[in-house]
Amino acid sequence: MTVAERAVVAWSSGKDCAWALDTVRRTGQFDVVGLLTTVTETFQRVSMHGVRLEVLEAQARAVGLPLHLVSIPFPCPNEVYERAMGRALTALRVQHVERVVFGDLFLEDVRRYREERMAHTGLAPAFPLWGRSTPDLVREMISAGLEARIVALDPSRVPPRFAGRVLTRPLLEELPPEVDPCGERGEFHTCVTAGPMFDHPLPVEPGDVVERDGFVFADVRMAPLRPASPGR
């Protein structure tokens, strides 16, 4: 009997990595044992997406996997990022992890960069969503019950009014025609709060929308627990 390779998912908090996790779990392609996430230590938020650490931790609990955090400063030169990621991959190799699963879809330069950086780590990258039609893929996600909010966007390509909105079929029709419906070229980033990869939806609420460093960020925070109703 063949034993599935141990893998971690490169977890950005967004829809593509979440769907990649669901895909490899459904197919049994790998034995997924954790989530690998880069967190900007200055803000204690997921790098690029700006998602709060508390939301990231809630996602990890909902998928039933431990987090492996890669802490980086702000700003972060590429060589600093690569050293931090190299240390994390070395630690994972010691734990007998063999694969890192990515949610990349079609950007050849991004895939080539990942393959080159991992070539001497003892781990191999995997791209279970590679080459999928992005219009078909995002509609498949929505139909399966995945809920994702737009938490960061490039206002030069996507109007700021989309920040904080949940990704739905009607919203896809509103996007400018030149925008990839999965945001694969960096037009927007999402945070997943429900879907088949979670054992329960995350109780979240929207926060402030701010513009910083040329991007628009829509905060998402965990909703406060409501007190139980008194018994009759």
What is the secondary structure topology, with strand pairs?
Layout: E1 5-10, H1 15-27, E2 30-40, E3 45-46, H2 53-63, E4 67-72, H3 78-94, E5 99-101, H4 108-118, E6 124-126, H5 134-143, E7 147-153, H6 169-174, E8 188-194, E9 204-212, E10 215-222
Parallel strand pairs: 1-2, 1-5, 2-4, 5-6
Antiparallel strand pairs: 2-3, 7-8, 7-10, 9-10
Question: How would you describe what is shown here?
Answer:
The protein is of the alpha/beta class and 232 residues long. It has one domain (5-222): Rossmann fold (3-Layer(aba) Sandwich). 29% of the residues lie in helices and 27% in strands. The chain has six helices and ten strands, in the order βαββαβαβαβαβαβββ. Strands 1, 2, 3, 4, 5 and 6 form a six-stranded mixed beta sheet that branches. A four-stranded antiparallel beta sheet has the order 8-7-10-9, with helices on one face. Strand 2 (30-40) and strand 3 (45-46) form a beta hairpin. The protein is globular, with a radius of gyration of 18 Å. The model has no long low-confidence stretch (mean pLDDT 95).
